[in-house]
Amino acid sequence: MNFGKSVGRHTDQAVKKMAEMMEKERKEPPKEEAPIYKESALGLFPQTVFKANGMKAVRERVDELVKDLHGTKQKWTDNDFKPELASIFKEQDKVEAATAAKIKKAKWLRPQQITMKSDLVGFLDINRTKATKKELDGLKELELADSHRIAQSAILDNRWLLNAISMVAAEERQLELLTCQTEKEIVKMREEFGLYVFRFFKGGEMVIVIVDDFIPTEELPNGKPVPLFARCSNPLLFWASIVEKAYAKLHGRYFALNGGSTDEALEDLTGVPVDNVFIDDGSTMTDKKTLFNSLKTLCYNHCIVGCKIDMEMFPRLNENKIEKEKHYAKAKANGLQPFHMYSVLDVRTVMGPSPAQGGEQIEYNLVRLQNPWADASEWKGRCSDANDDFWTPEVKQALNSQDQLAAAGAEGADQDTLSSKRFLH
């Protein structure tokens, strides 16, 4: 397992110690992804993609862009990154003919044009200010779903970016920084004029990207439009599509994102270097107590932590495809998807019932994961949502009393709570 992608304000000493210990024990280093550092569009769109030392200059730029729209009830249109084919791909991208033909049929629509429930459309959360009680009561389960779940397009190979975006979204403070959510004036411009401001980083320097909310869409067989690229599984939310659009603009076009590195994306989204820790199969590679305590420290300090099952990272398995497939099959049988980047939401130690008869209470080290992808896959093993024998009222109360995240269980199919013993195997 690659227990990678730890991002935070400071790297915890326990993580450093663990990494040193693992490096000493490792007989052969894992094969890391070759970073693909992408050129940014700095200089290409100087009015809407620029470096900034503070938010005052950003607010002044935004005011300049919308000064002629006040009182007109018109939305802002981004003339730098226009709703046209050139914003998606160029000739050098060598897009296959069938894909190019599909893209050429795309219609650029604003969120309110994509769904019938335009009054409820929101960015990070559904808009409840204009909705009637009847409309809110009539919302479908999917329309009330966790906003962090996203669906990837089959057209664009940018899972590496969406992995990073979903990890950032799981840490509220980082998401607020990325989307300028705490800047009231900027949020007001978003709501009034459809102008969105994002705070990225290149080379450690803050880069502001301003976009409108036109999204390329395709038409489903039933005639309904959906975003052509990334989208939220909740059809009333559009943060994933617009963050993806802003990142595409930062690099000139959507197809500049075709293949890349999650490490680079995380650094671009947060401005913080990424650490990777590799856990090989077997107890000799790491001390589980040290690992668990390090995860706990990282999570409690609001660091971004993710993990994935990827046997391709270990050269010793290159010639043993049967062994690799065994690992992948075992993961899938337990509801975990190989190569998916899961976000680590919470790390806890609680007392729970022993699997053996007798009901003796034993200590469990729990790691709570979020599968950001809009599929039905979730953990099926010990401590899963369906494991009622484990999720007794006492266990839920113990989790609630620690005043961290909600008590897990059936509150979210995208958030899996795993015993760390099963998690490491």
3D architecture notes:
- The structure is a single chain.
- The chain contains 14 helices and 14 strands.
- By secondary structure, it is of the alpha+beta class.
- It has two domains: 2-34 and 272-424, Cysteine proteinases (Cathepsin B, Chain A, Alpha-Beta Complex); 49-260, no CATH class.
- Strands 10-1-11-12-13-14 form a six-stranded antiparallel sheet. A three-stranded antiparallel sheet has the order 2-6-5. The protein has a three-stranded antiparallel sheet with strand order 3-7-8.
- Helix 1 packs antiparallel against helix 11 (288-300) and helix 6 crosses helix 10.
- The termini are close together.
- 41% of the residues are buried.
Order of helices and strands: EHEHHEHHEHHHEEEEEHHEHEHEEHEH
Low-confidence stretches: 8-12, 21-36, 403-413, 420-425
Given the helix and strand composition, which structural class is it? alpha+beta
Mean pLDDT: 80
What is the strand arrangement across the widest sheet? 10-1-11-12-13-14
What are the main properties of this structure?
six-stranded antiparallel sheet, 425 residues, Cathepsin B, Chain A, 2 domains, disordered C terminus, 14 helices, alpha+beta, 18% strand
